[in-house]
């Protein structure tokens, strides 16, 4: 049988297994993976509205677009970063490769977030009366870039974990404050010039603001540079894939 | 059983394998080249010579440091291996996963394992609730349910109670017309029962004997 067909059936089997394993203890199983972020986003939106919204009348939608794209990146990258370790016993089956495990998690988490994003945005539009999205292809493109950057970051972390498992703690320390400097609840256009020139180095700013500029008609997106985001995608994936290839001897 | 010298099972081409230890590297193979025919083969060697590692190289679980291995038959994991069973997944879910990655008919494999392993309701319960005997029966039943052409056996094959051991033996004999074994053991009676050829692992080299007795003599000399 051809190697490609083998890879595809292995990845398919892994996706089903991971979906089963991830929320194995909860009775409702995988449905929880959808409900949990939807609930979290609802509660966060409510809290932020209580403490003040910076004068935006549409804060719920604004915050939702930010936190959805941020979580897509953060959750998927950290989930993929554990894919080598958590599937280690499976590499005893010669056709199961570490990269299959990473790809399976990309497929699973990518589709989970796609459902969550669709659900939350539909709720905003139909229940809260938010305006419909303006440029759906641009929204898809930025989410795709964010997802691919998550894959590159996740695989890179998984590779570093082969030598230094504590890198995950470092990553968590970085991703905590990242929530506050990635334009999740403010717009880059409202940031004073001095801070703005620093913030634009953060690739997540371009992913999140790029997603918003797709959603909102006439969004102020002068600082958004999708090519800069794309560069990060390429660099992280290059580092991750080459790193994985070079350090395969560490995998057993 | 027909002699199958003409059909190749696995080729090792200039294979080297070492292990890092705290005090340097342990050499398992140094540039071994060998072509094993599709025969029942015993692997013999002193303790720590690297028999189990060789078995894992043959299974494709471990990669050689240098050199290549090529498999001409479908080769099992070492029988009884169950480290890959997920504790939260039930027996049937674990079986389904393995059937999928080996591209077998999932339902057929499930039926075979269910009737062979005799787990009853436990087949549908999480693996963590299994006794060690139940886990072993599931693992053994699964290896038997997949159409391997070569089975790898590391030391122990007997699992479960006496009745299950007889059943395992029968299932295994049923497979022998279409399958061969590669077996690691220190028990000469077991090797004589199952194998016709032998392979000695000694000091990083492999020596193949078409007749098992030759290998056993060599092994005795190593231990002398």
Question: What would you say about this model in short?
Answer:
The complex is a heterodimer of chains A (252) and B (224). Chain A is an all-alpha fold and 252 residues long.
Q: Overall pLDDT of chain B, averaged?
A: 87
Q: Please state the CA-atom Rg of chain B, rounded to the nearest Å.
A: 18 Å
Helix content percent band of chain A: 55-70%
Strand content of chain B: 25-35%
Q: What is the CATH H-level superfamily of the largest domain in chain B?
A: P-loop containing nucleotide triphosphate hydrolases
Oligomeric state of shown chains: heterodimer
What report would you give on this structure?
The complex is a heterodimer of chains A (252) and B (224). Chain A has 252 residues and is mainly alpha-helical. Chain A has helices at residues 3-22, 31-50, 59-81, 83-86, 98-126, 136-161, 167-178, 193-199, 203-215, 226-246. Chain A has one domain. Chain A is built from 10 helices and no strands. The mean pLDDT of chain A is 89. In chain B, a hairpin with a 2-residue loop joins strand 8 (197-202) and strand 9. Chain B folds into 2 domains: 8-73 and 197-223, P-loop containing nucleotide triphosphate hydrolases (Rossmann fold, 3-Layer(aba) Sandwich); 78-181, Rossmann fold, CATH 3.40.50.300. By secondary structure, chain B is of the alpha/beta class. Chain B has a 6-stranded mixed sheet with strand order 5-6-7-3-8-9, sandwiched between helices. Helices cover 35% and strands 28% of the residues of chain B. Chain B has helices at 51-59, 91-101, 106-117, 132-145, 162-175, 188-194, 212-223, and strands spanning 8-21, 24-37, 41-44, 66-71, 75-78, 150-154, 180-184, 197-202, 205-209. The mean pLDDT of chain B is 87. In chain B, helix 2 crosses helix 3 (106-117), helix 3 (106-117) packs across helix 4 and helix 4 runs parallel beside helix 5. The A-B interface holds A 1, 5-6, 9-10, 12-13, 16-17, 20-21, 24-25, 89-96, 248-249, 252 and B 59-63, 65, 77, 81, 83-84, 86, 88-89, 93, 97-98, 100-103, 126.
């Amino acid at each position: 049988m051809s190697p490609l067909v083998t890879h595809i059936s292995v990845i398919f089997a892994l996706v089903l297994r991971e979906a089963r394993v991830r929320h194995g203890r909860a009775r409702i199983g995988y449905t929880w993976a959808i409900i949990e972020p939807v609930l979290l986003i609802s509660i966060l939106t409510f809290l932020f509205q209580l403490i003040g919204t910076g004068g935006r009348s549409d804060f719920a939608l604004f915050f939702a677009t930010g936190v959805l794209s941020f979580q897509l990146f953060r959750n998927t990258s950290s989930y993929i970063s554990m894919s080598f370790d958590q599937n280690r016993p499976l590499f005893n089956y010669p056709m199961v490769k570490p990269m299959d495990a990473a790809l399976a998690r990309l497929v699973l988490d990518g589709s989970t977030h796609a459902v969550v994003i669709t659900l939350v945005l539909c709720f905003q539009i139909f229940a809260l009366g938010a305006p419909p999205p303006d440029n759906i292809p641009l929204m898809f493109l930025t989410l795709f870039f964010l997802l691919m950057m998550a894959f590159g970051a996740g695989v890179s972390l998984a590779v570093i974990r082969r030598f230094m498992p504590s890198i995950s703690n470092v990553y968590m320390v970085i991703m905590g404050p990242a929530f506050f400097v990635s334009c999740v609840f403010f717009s880059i256009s409202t940031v004073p010039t001095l801070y703005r020139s620093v913030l634009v180095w953060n690739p997540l700013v371009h992913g999140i603001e790029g997603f918003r500029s797709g959603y909102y008609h006439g969004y102020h997106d002068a600082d958004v540079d999708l090519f800069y985001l794309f560069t990060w995608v390429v660099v992280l994936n290059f580092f991750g894939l080459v790193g994985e290839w070079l350090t395969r001897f560490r995998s057993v | 059983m027909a002699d199958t010298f003409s059909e190749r099972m696995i080729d090792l081409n200039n294979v080297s394998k070492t292990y890092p230890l705290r005090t340097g590297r342990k050499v398992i193979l140094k540039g071994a080249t060998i072509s094993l025919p599709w025969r029942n083969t015993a692997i013999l060697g002193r303790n720590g010579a690297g028999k189990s590692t060789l078995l894992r190289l043959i299974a494709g679980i471990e990669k050689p440091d240098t050199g290549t291995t090529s498999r001409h038959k479908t080769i099992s994991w070492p029988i009884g291996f169950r480290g890959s069973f997920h504790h939260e997944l039930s027996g049937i879910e674990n079986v389904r996963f393995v059937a999928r990655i080996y591209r077998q008919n999932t339902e057929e494999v499930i039926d075979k394992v269910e009737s062979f392993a005799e787990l009853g309701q436990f087949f549908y319960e999480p693996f963590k609730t299994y006794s060690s005997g139940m886990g072993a029966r599931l693992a053994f039943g699964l290896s038997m349910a997949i159409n391997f052409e070569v089975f790898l056996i590391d030391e122990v094959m007997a699992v479960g109670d006496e009745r299950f051991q007889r059943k395992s033996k029968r299932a295994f004999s049923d497979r022998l017309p279409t399958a061969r074994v590669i077996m690691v053991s220190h028990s000469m009676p077991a090797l004589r029962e199952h194998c016709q050829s032998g392979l000695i692992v000694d000091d990083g080299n492999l020596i193949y004997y078409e007749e098992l007795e030759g290998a056993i003599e060599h092994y005795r000399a190593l231990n002398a």
